[in-house]
Specification:
- This protein has 122 residues and is α/β, with parallel strands linked by helices.
- It has a single domain, classed as Rossmann fold, CATH 3.40.50.920.
- The chain has a five-stranded mixed beta sheet with strand order 1-3-2-4-5, with helices on both faces.
- Strand 4, helix 3 and strand 5 form a beta-alpha-beta unit.
- The chain is globular, with a radius of gyration of 16 Å.
Length: 122
């Protein structure tokens, strides 16, 4: 039986050129992308958040400082997603270590889900 520590992220792949930060299904995609980048001599570190509440701020800051470039990936919409929180942690604690603007890859923003019959028909 595997025990996943709550609030402790894990580096799934070491890298030096950029950090890919994800959790859940997006982690699988980030690992695939890291493999493809390696074929082009780009070394991508992949950080698995594993849990988002509590979130492992130290691991997030460490990977940002290590590579200086960060892409946060999650499957939720862009607005008010976990990527924004991860980026805020980096901005507050590792801004001076960044070599490029923080980036995030998310699902497109959509209007609030309709729960009103008239809106559902629109």
């Amino acid at each position: 039986d595997a025990v996943v520590p709550i609030g402790k992220a894990e580096v799934k792949r070491e890298g030096t050129d950029l950090s890919l930060i994800a959790y859940g299904l997006m982690l699988t995609y980030c690992l695939e992308v890291a493999e493809k980048l390696a074929a082009e001599d780009v070394s991508a570190e992949v950080l698995d958040l594993r849990t988002i509440k509590p979130i492992d701020q130290a691991a997030i800051v460490a990977t940002a400082k290590k590579t200086g470039k960060v892409l946060v990936v999650h499957e939720d919409t862009r607005f008010a997603g976990i990527a924004a929180e991860v980026m805020a942690i980096i901005m507050e604690q590792a801004f001076d270590a960044l070599d490029a603007p923080l980036m995030r890859l998310t699902a497109p923003d959509v209007p609030a889900m309709p729960f009103n019959h008239v809106l559902e028909q629109a």
